Amino acid sequence: PSGDRFQQVPAWVSEEIINVRASASRDSDIRFQLERGAKVTATALDGHWVQVKTSDGRSGWAAGWVVSFVPPGQQITAQEGSQTVKVHVGWVARPRVNLRAKPSTEAEKITSAELSTRVVILNQQGQWYKVAMDSGEVGWMASWLVDTRAQRIARKTTGQAPASASGVAEDIAFPSPTTTASAGGIGQEIQAAARKFVGHRYVRGSASPGSGFDCSGFVHYVMKQFGVSLPRSCDAQFRNGQPVSRSALQPGDVVFFQNTYRRGISHVGFYVGDDKFVHASNSRRGVVIDSLNSSYYAPRYYGARRMY
Question: Which of 285, 304, 301, 186 is closest to 238 using CA atoms?
Answer without folding.
Answer: 304
